[in-house]
Structure formats: C-alpha cells, structure tokens
Amino acid sequence: xxxxxxxxxEWREMLTPEAYKVARKGGTERAFTGALWDEKxxxxxxxxxxxxxxxxxxxxxxxxxxxxxxxxxxxGDAVWERExxxxxxxxxxxxxxxxxxxxxxxFPDGPAPTGLRYCMxxxxxxxxxxxxxxxxxxx
Length: 139
Known about the structure:
The protein has helices at 8-14, 17-24, 130-138; strands at residues 43-47, 53-56, 60-61, 69-70, 79-84, 91-96, 102-107, 117-120, 125-129. The chain has 139 residues and is of the alpha+beta class. The chain has one domain: Peptide methionine sulfoxide reductase (Metal Binding Protein, Guanine Nucleotide Exchange Factor, Chain A, Beta Complex), CATH 2.170.150.20. The strands form 2 sheets. The chain has a 6-stranded antiparallel β-sheet with strand order 3-4-8-7-6-5. A 3-stranded antiparallel β-sheet has the order 2-1-9. A hairpin with a 5-residue loop joins strand 1 and strand 2 (53-56).
C-alpha cells in the first residue's frame, strides 16, 4: 500500500490548526501543553493524519521533557528518520511512514531496552485506549 497523499488544502481542512502546523509543517508544540504528554493508560498511539499505528502505551515513559516519549515504535516499519539541521543543531527527525507526517525527534538518551527516546508531539498523534480497542473488537 502506498503513502497517503493529500494537497495542502486537504490537510488544512482535515486537521486542527495545531496538528497541521506540527504534522505537515514540522512545528513543535510547547512542552507540557499537549494533550498526551501525561497520558498513562494502556493503548495505541496513531498518526493524526493517516491513523497508522505508531507507538504502544507499554513503551511510553515519563522522560520529564513535557512531550510524549517512547522507547520504541510499534514496529520497524511504522516510522522513518532523517537528519534535521534546523535550530542550529543536528537532530534526527521522526516521520510517519504512512504519510510523512512530522512526529518529533529521536534521541540516544532513553531507557533500556533500546536506549532511545522518541520524543513526539501530542498534536501529531491520536490515542486509542486499550479498553476502547477491546470493546471495538468484541462488538
């Protein structure tokens, strides 16, 4: 299956202004302001643009940064990475493999078992609580 592709106008119509700024234009929400930074329930985090599964609640941890942080994506094909030389530094940008949405950045200072910190923007994600997924599967 190919990548989801939409025009800029279609993305603007589909997303909130904050989600558009972050996911389609590479923006960053302010720390401790996103809806999911302090989410603690088990569940699945999906791309706000294409609904692709990205991270599981079991890999989420409190990094103290104010952004949702995970030590691994849901699988090796969920995201892709590229060098980001913006803001006068070199970082590794993380993008959704389903639609190229900007999600955040990955850093080598995370916990075991990977040692990685996928520092994501809440505005680029949706959250499906585990109980909702179970109910949908049973319904």
